[in-house]
Amino acid sequence: MRSSTKLDLQYAHRFYGFKGEAQYLHGHTGILTIEVEDSVNEGVNMVFPCNEIQKTAWSLLKNFDHALILREDDPMLPAILKVYEETNLINGTPQNQMKGEAFKNELATAYPDCRLVVTKETMTVEGMIKIVYSLLKDKLNIAKITFTSGVNIASADFTTNNNIDRCPLCGIALNKNGVCPKCGYSH
Ligand SMILES: [Zn+2]
Ligand SMILES: [Zn+2]
Q1: Which fold would CATH assign to domain 2-157?
Q2: 72 alpha carbon – ligand 1 mean position (Å)
Q3: Which of 65, 69, 169, 173 is 20–30 Å from 58 (CA)?
Q4: Per DSSP, which regions of the chain are E strands?
C-alpha cells in the first residue's frame, strides 16, 4: 500500500537556451506529490506517517522554496551572484531563516544562504522529479513522484527497495541501531 504527501514550492527559474517564453526569468508555485510504498506496519496500521514523509522531504526541498533555480551554464548565474555579492546577500542575512540543509549531488547543488539552487539540467517538471528522486531515494521507499507547475505536469514511477525498519509505536524509521528516534522503542 502507499502513503503520500504533498508540498508546495514557490520558485523562480528559466529555461536557458529554450526557444519560447520560458527563456525569460519567471516564477511558479509547484506542487510536489511523493508516494511511498511498503507493507502496512502492523503496529500503527500505516505504511509510513505522512507528516514524516513531509518532514524528510522538506528538510532538503526547502532549498527550492522562495529560491532561484538556474542551470550551471546559464550566464544569468554569474550576473545574479555579482548582484547578490554587491548587495551583501550572498552569505545570507539574519532574515533568511527558512533555510534547508545544503546539498550537492550529481544533479543539483543548493546554496541555502542565498536561496539558490544550481542544476545540471534545465529545471523542467521532469527535471525536478529526477532531482527529488536523487535526493530522497535512500531515505524513503518512493514509488511515485508527481510534479505540477502551472499547466505542466510530469510523473514517474520508481521501484525502491530500501529495507526501512519502522517503529511499531509511531511508525517512523528506526535509526541504524534499531532505535526509534522519536519514542526510544528498540527491538
Ligand atoms: Zn517555468
Ligand atoms: Zn517510535
Answers
A1: Tetrahydropterin Synthase; Chain A (3.30.479)
A2: 17
A3: 169
A4: 2-13, 26-37, 67-71, 108-111, 116-119, 142-149, 152-157
